[in-house]
Amino acid sequence: MSIIKKAVVLSSGGIDSTTAMAIAKQEGFSIYSLSFNYGQRHSFELESARRVAAFFKVEEHMILDIDLRKIGGSSLTAEIDVPKKRPAQEMTQGIPVTYVPARNTIFLSYALGWAEVLECGDIFIGVTAVDYSGYPDCRPEYIEAFEKMANLATKAGVENRTRLKIHTPLIQMTKSEIIRCGSELGVDYSMTHSCYDPSPEGYACGSCDSCLFRKKGFTEAGIPDPTEYK
Known about the structure:
The chain is α/β, with parallel strands linked by helices. It has helices spanning 15-26, 44-55, 88-91, 103-117, 140-153, 155-158, 175-184, 209-221, and strands spanning 5-10, 29-37, 60-65, 122-124, 165-167.
């Protein structure tokens, strides 16, 4: 009798989380997708997360409502302009205003709670420390610290019933490497959304940091970008 391996996969509907889900699927995990309606600027990414969940035929796709707009502090959760057309060098220096305070810690904490209820020892998150905007909660040392905390903070961990593992399969990959990896696994990136500041119709702006990293990734991967830009 084969043992079913369960994994909670954080899904934003973007390139990175979708590729992480493809990797989890390839590794034989039964997928439980977790997304958040956290007060972000738009809902298009959640629509993409739903498409991704359907594409991978996940066991369950949970969308949790949390209101980070009450905290603010980011151009994604407050009335602060999203930076546009920043030079590549600038995008890799400092922490931009698109950083949402403690977002990955909050998201991983919810994932941890669901994983414990599912009696699941594996969480996948599509963070990368190469082609990214300098967010502190995407670094390997942060993930290692959270994993250590998680095994100290749960009943399952303290009773040695489940050893929690935070999987970060993309953390040392460039955006082009991520796109090539996902393409080889059959990911259709037209169902994903990356833009921080899309038009009311859902077209990507083409000039925010996330759009620029996406364009660069597809160009370097030699794969056509399926994104509809306004």
